Amino acid sequence: MSIRPHRVSTVAVGLLASLWLVSGCAENREVLTSATGGEPEFIRDVSSADGPEVGYGGSGSSGGGGTQRAELRVDPAVGGTVVCGRYQLTIPPGALSYETTYRIEYDPRDPELIFDLYPHGAQFHVPVEISVNLSGTTAQDYDDVTLYWFNGDADSWVDVGGVWDSSNARLTCSLSHFSRYGSGRAGW
């Protein structure tokens, strides 16, 4: 059996194109996968068995004790702020060119601090800012706390950085799009 040169070059071009696309989507950030297909070491809530329902402010509704959510319809000329539990989303004027509803969702029963920002897939003209209050979590034990974005196309978590203020237990990060996010340790 012989391998045709055309078939080999087609496969090679396809592989190179895939690698180029993945590296471009990550914006020079580390794409995180492990040999076992694991996840980053996520920051965990250790404040209570049910999560941070008291003392973090914000407006959320549970719909029966499950998912917490808060949303706000935002005028693009004005901007706004959405607060839900330990999460605060600041939308500056001009982030999008049209009025839209921004939403934060998370499950307080999940000890890993995973949250969703909506509308998923929104690409911003001006970055928005997410701030996560990590009081009462394992983050207080580390100096390498970062924010991860879940890339569903690659089925992997991508380190998007952020600024970790350990004295105030707050992680802040500028975002150019919405998706699923989680707080974790850098370089897990």
TrEMBL record:
Give the domain of life. Answer: Bacteria
PROSITE patterns, alphabetically? PROKAR_LIPOPROTEIN
Spans of biased composition, class Gly residues? 54-67
Query: Which residues does the annotated region (Disordered) include?
Result: 41-70
User: What is the protein named?
Assistant: ZU5 domain-containing protein
Q: What is the lineage of its organism?
A: Bacteria, Candidatus Eiseniibacteriota
